[in-house]
Specification:
Elements (H helix, E strand, L loop, with lengths): L1 H5 L7 H11 L3 E5 L7 H13 L3 E6 L2 H15 L4 E4 L4 E2 L5 E5 H9 L8 E6 L11 H10 L5 E6 L5 H12 L2 E5 L7 E7 L2 E4 L11 H12 L8 H10 L5 E4 L3 H13 L7 H14 L5 H6 L2 H10 L1 E4 L5 H12 L5 E4 L13 E4 L3 E3 L4 E3 L2 H8 L11 E6 L6 H9 L13 H21 L2 H38 L5 H39 L4 E4 L3 E2 L3 E6 L10 E4 L4 E3 L10 E5 L14 H9 L8 E2 L9 H12 L8 H24 L7 H14 L3 E2 L8 E2 L1 H6 L7 H9 L8 H8 L21 H23 L13 H8 L4 H10 L6 H18 L6 H14 L2 H5 L4
Parallel strand pairs: 1-7, 1-8, 2-5, 2-6, 3-5, 6-7, 9-17, 11-13, 11-14, 12-13, 14-17
Antiparallel strand pairs: 3-4, 9-10, 15-16, 18-20, 18-23, 19-24, 20-21, 21-22, 25-26
Helix pairs in contact: 2-3, 5-6, 11-13, 17-23, 18-22, 19-21, 19-22, 26-27, 26-28, 26-31, 28-29, 30-31
GO molecular function, one term: ATP binding
Keywords: ATP-binding, Helicase, Hydrolase, Nucleotide-binding
Protein name: ATP-dependent DNA helicase
């Protein structure tokens, strides 16, 4: 221990020493500590302990960037011969006694019963709170549950509010596990709010969760002046530089915002570097990009990016080329960059602390809606502030904007914990691997030992308590109703009034359902019309009396989500969707348009509108917006029953119905609570059985009639080697031979349909054509097989596999065939996918990962041969440079 501690330039903290002692004693440990507190020292002690005892240690991280960084850290300490790296697409010295890897790699090794596990004595799970990640979290639990009990598990986590619960589960499934929690930060964090050009302490020193009076007063003055936004980014950087708060990570929750901030500083001629620093930055940049083709550098906006770096600032986000991100990380860590404009992904990634952290907003887009930051997210972001050994204090600066409540921000800053909730769920690959390695009975027992089931079991007591409360509330409401009936209508029973209240509620629900269905039907009518329109068709818009005319200037063949462009008589031009109309437009004619209108409709909108007004067409005199209907046969029957009910004739019926409606609502709430406590409702075991039923139908597993005899077939063994979100869909495509005979570029392109996810749709014209007939047939076959699978999953009450997407097909085909980057990005845009170079590289590497698996799944020789050739064809140029990103 003393020799290990002496290697650090600072004395170890108490929590680090306690955790190291637990590891030395052969116990597992869960360390929960703030970002930057030094919890990785505990993981490094596990590495040291494994080496000194002649064992091996796997150091797992959630992302490749962290794996790469940790690999280099350990190489610097122990040398290249004793350290390896495995990240799926990179394999370096995998038989070394110390191997850094992503958690997925370890999961795959466990299922494959790899020989590398024989010497394994310690596993470090860095950032184990990723267990709560919806898409990748289950992998952590798979590893924890499947590792040999003799392996000492060292789990490192951010501060979580239910650490005791998580630690209790680890003790249950792994044996003795010490829980070590610290909230101490080696570098204290000061919280500020910037209003106009003032940087003011956010919190009241006497009451840390309350806002400083000066902040409240300044915010009120800013509100009164009518300011809508916070301070200008250039002013923020200048003011923080003057206050000695740089270097800073400046969080902006959009890629475009980060890039825009860099452009803004360039336009304002901001420079934060000395001549010496600038020369060192430019030498580093030029040396790092020597392998990137000159043409690609032009596409990447290299000259502007290089100039910004030389001035001391840059952006950092997932849309950048990985090689560019690595340069930014290197320069910032060396202290040469003074400001890094970053998205929140940086907070979950590499170790890149700064003196200060700036939060431009406290609201971010989560993929579906704009939501406020949680205390956990705020803690994670601001945790980057304060460099141990360099800063005496870290600074978190929130920029004020209109409507921001200083009290709310102060409370957010004062709340430092968040819960860790399991996202574990069985899938197809997991199911066949568990049956193959453990058998059905032990697999069920393993699922019952998961953290997800542990949390569910704990909540049973809470649910039972809620049910007791619901029963008590219901009894009070029933007593109140009975009292009112005795006082008003002694001859009327409570059942009569409750029956009437239930009928009224059912009528309200039926009318609401009818209204919704009416709106859905009209939406389908509008969608069908819009998808059938051609360029030049004239339509009358539902705008009331004398409806406006519009002409279609760009059609759309997407029948499910039509989005044609129109030009209206008044000159307005833009795309319309079914949601744009409350009634169905009416086709009234056709006119000839210039051939180039579809390419630039806005530029020619005025001329088109003028020509449209001169057209002589018959149009309806009225075409009013139509409210959704609210009636149906079911509603009509219920309405009659309500009117015929004896309670309906009472003059004081409303006074009686109100308490009766409360009773009806309380009974329904109680019923829902009781359903929630029903044994085995939606348990992991039940889902596992549903999965096996479907896999049995498809011949991936078989049995002798009893669940306990379930075994994996040859097809199931192939499925067990496909670790992918759409694993069963991939297996079905390979099994049915629809990818046989494709050349390498075609195979890569069709594989992209189950990998690619279009997150930013192009506004340009979407082309459905694909480069070759064989590829078109393969894509159609994938979609057909998906339809069959989705139907089977719905029938078995299972989550439906994500639908294949074709937006990357043409781009990847052309890239694999040797086309340049610029051409491929334009091909993606034409197919409806707007990709940055970083996006392009990321999707390429994910397709490579799937192709690498296909090579080892045991399907046809032609598919394996094409996969072997496709991988190096994709891994070239910017993709090869980004392979370790």
């Amino acid at each position: 221990m003393a020799a290990f501690a002496a290697a650090y330039g600072f004395p170890l903290d108490d929590f680090q020493l306690r955790a190291a002692c637990a590891v030395e004693a052969g116990r597992g440990v869960l360390v929960c500590a703030p970002t930057g507190s030094g919890k990785t020292v505990v993981g490094e002690y596990a590495v040291h302990r494994a080496l000194t005892t002649g064992g091996a240690c796997f150091y797992t991280t959630p992302i490749k960037a962290l794996s790469n960084q940790k690999y280099h850290d350990l190489v610097d300490r122990y040398g290249e011969d004793r350290v390896g790296l495995l990240t799926g697409d990179v394999s370096i010295n995998g038989d070394a006694p110390i191997v850094v890897m992503t958690t997925e790699v370890l999961r795959n090794m466990v299922y494959a019963d790899s020989d590398r596990l024989d010497r394994l004595t310690h596993v470090v799970m860095d950032e184990v709170h990723f267990l709560a990640d919806p898409s990748r979290g289950p992998v952590w639990e798979e590893v924890i549950l499947n590792l040999d009990p003799s392996v000492i598990l060292v789990s490192l986590s951010a501060t979580v509010s239910n650490a005791e619960e998580f630690g209790g589960w680890l003790t249950t499934v792994r044996g003795a596990t010490d829980l070590i929690i610290t909230t101490h930060r080696p570098v204290p964090l000061e919280q500020y709010m910037m209003i106009d050009r003032q940087i003011l302490p956010l919190n009241d020193p006497k009451h840390p969760e309350e806002a400083n009076r000066a902040v409240i007063a300044a915010a009120s003055r800013a509100e009164e002046t009518g300011r809508r936004t916070g301070p200008k980014r250039t002013d923020v950087v200048a003011r923080m530089g003057a206050a000695g708060m740089l270097p800073a990570i400046y969080f902006i929750f959009s890629r475009a915002g980060c890039d825009g901030a860099v452009r803004q500083l360039l336009v304002d001629r901001v420079r934060l570097t000395t001549d010496t620093d600038r020369d060192e930055i430019l030498r580093t940049v030029d040396a790092a990009v020597t392998e990137i083709p000159t043409d690609d550098l032009g596409v990447l906006g290299f000259r502007q990016w290089r100039r910004a770096l030389g001035n001391g600032y840059a952006a950092h986000h997932a849309g950048m080329l990985p090689a560019f991100r690595h340069i930014v990380e290197d320069l910032f860590t060396r202290g040469l960059l003074k400001v890094c404009f970053a998205t929140e992904t940086l907070a979950l990634g590499i170790n890149m602390p700064a003196r200060s952290v700036v939060l431009e907003k406290l609201v971010k887009y989560n993929g579906e809606a704009h939501v406020e930051l949680t205390p956990g997210q705020y803690t994670q972001l601001t945790g980057r502030a304060g460099r141990r050994g360099k800063d005496t204090v870290g600074n978190a600066v929130v920029l004020w904007s209109r409507g921001m409540d200083p009290h709310g921000v102060a409370h957010l800053a004062g709340t430092r914990t968040y819960p860790l909730d399991s996202t574990f769920r069985p899938g197809y690959n997991m199911a066949v691997n568990l049956v193959a390695t453990k058998g059905y009975t032990d697999a069920q027992r393993l699922l019952d030992r998961s953290f997800a089931q542990y949390q569910t079991a704990t909540s049973v007591v809470e649910q039972a308590t809620r049910v007791t409360g619901r029963r008590r509330d219901l009894a009070a409401l029933e007593k109140d109703l009975a009292g009112q009936l005795r006082a008003r209508h002694s001859d009327l029973s409570a059942d009569d009034v409750l029956e009437y209240a239930s009928l009224r509620r059912d009528l309200s629900l039926a009318e609401r359902k009818a209204k919704r269905e009416s709106g859905n039907e009209r939406g389908k009518e509008i969608s069908n019309l819009l998808s059938s329109l051609s360029v030049g068709d004239i339509i009358a818009l539902p705008t009331g009396r004398n409806p406006d005319l519009a002409v279609v200037v760009r059609s759309d063949s997407d029948r499910r989500h039509p989005r044609p462009w129109i030009v209206v008589e008044d000159g307005w031009c833009g795309p319309v969707t079914p949601d744009s109309f409350s009634n169905v437009p009416v086709p009234v004619g056709h006119m000839k348009l210039n051939r180039n209108v579809s390419k630039s409709p806005k530029r020619q909108a005025r001329a088109v509108a003028s020509n449209l007004r001169r057209q002589h067409v018959d149009k309806p005199r009225k075409l009013k917006p139509r409210a959704s209907g609210g009636s149906s046969r079911e509603a009509a029957v219920l309405r009659e029953q309500v009117h015929m009910h004896p309670v309906h004739a009472l003059r004081d019926r409303e006074d009686l119905v109100r308490p009766a409606e409360r009773v009806v609502a309380a009974r329904r709430t109680l019923d829902r609570e009781l359903e929630a406590t029903t044994p085995d409702s939606e348990t992991l075991s039940a889902t596992f059985d549903h999965i096996l039923d479907l896999l049995g139908e498809l011949d991936y597993v078989e049995s002798d009639g009893a669940r306990e005899t379930t075994r994996v077939t040859a097809e199931g063994e192939r499925l067990s080697r496909i670790h992918h979100e759409s694993d069963l869909l991939v297996a079905q495509c390979l099994r049915r031979g629809i990818w046989d005979g494709l050349d390498p570029a075609e195979l890569a392109a069709v594989a992209s349909t189950v990998v690619f996810e279009n997150r930013r749709e192009s506004a340009g014209r979407h082309e459905d054509a694909v480069p070759t007939e064989a590829l078109a047939d393969a894509v159609s076959a994938v979609q057909r097989i998906y339809g069959e699978l989705a139907s089977d999953e719905a029938r078995h009450c299972l989550p439906v596999t994500r639908e294949p997407q074709t937006g990357f097909v043409t781009a990847l085909h052309q890239w694999t065939a040797g086309a340049p980057l610029d051409y491929c990005l334009r091909a993606a845009e034409a197919s409806g996918a707007q990709l940055t170079p970083g996006d392009f590289v990321r999707w390429c590497t994910r397709v490579i990962d799937l192709l690498e698996q296909i090579k080892h799944t045991g399907y046809s020789d032609s598919v394996k041969a094409s996969a072997r050739k496709a991988v190096p064809a994709i891994r070239r140029g910017v993709v090869e440079l980004g392979a370790t990103g």
